[in-house]
Amino acid sequence: MASAAQETAERALRGAISRGDMPPGYRLVEAELVTLTGVSRSAVRLAIDVLAAEGLVERIQNKGARVRVVSTDEAVAITECRMPLEGLLARKAAERITDAEIDRLRAHLQTMTSAVDSGDVLKYSEFIQQLHGMIGDAARHPIAADLVGRLQAQLVRHRFRLSLRPGRPRVSLGELTALVDAIADRDPERAEAAAVTHLRSVIAALSDPTQDPGGPA
Question: Quick one: DSSP state of residue 208?
């Protein structure tokens, strides 16, 4: 069983990777991570082992550990795995969401819309991840939410790149608006379909080799 120190290190590293603070290829230096997390070197080392097992980190012989670089083909495969899980979370959210959670979802959607309107596409990318987290919370299905979170964390680089494509934020905003509307209407079938439609659109965008703005890695 993991110690409290190891779990602290895992949360800190997983969060930094998910936010893009530690981008793909970022070297994980144990001494620096000890300072960052405030735990022992052994706890940091065990946390790195856990993240390596999750596919977030890779160990390279004689070079230590780094945040794993995910290829486009892998990103498509990961998104395909997310599709049934995200559909399940959307369905459960529509069945279980409270009025207060609906209000928060709609307010967050307005924040996302403002980010797209102002052209702040990187902030919009962060807001998408937050929206998925809110839907996961409303679904009250911690196993599916945890699996989705682990898969999403591997896609930071690709999420940012998609947000930089001309017109893509507006497309995804429309898809996510339909998802929020379905959940707020407490319509499980429509919510599940909207989630699947959005991820199919993500896969199509990832698979298009003609559009790559060369955004943040």
Answer: -
Domains along the sequence of the chain with CATH: 4-67 (1.10.10.10), 72-206 (1.20.120.530)
Other CB atoms within a 10 A radius of the CB of residue 78 amount to: 20
Strand (E) or helix (H) holding 27: strand 27-28
* Cα dihedral 16, 22, 105, 54 sign: negative
Model confidence, pTM: 0.79
The residue type at 199: L
- The pLDDT tens digits for 48-96 are 999 998 888 999 888 899 999 899 999 999 999 999 999 999 999 999 9
Angle between helices 72-96 and 142-153 (to 10 degrees): 150
**DSSP for 90-125, written as a single string:** HHHHHHH--HHHHHHHHHHHHHHHHHHHHT-HHHHH
Give the type of residue at 162.
L
Q: Which residues contact 45 (CB under 8 A, 6 or more apart)?
A: 30
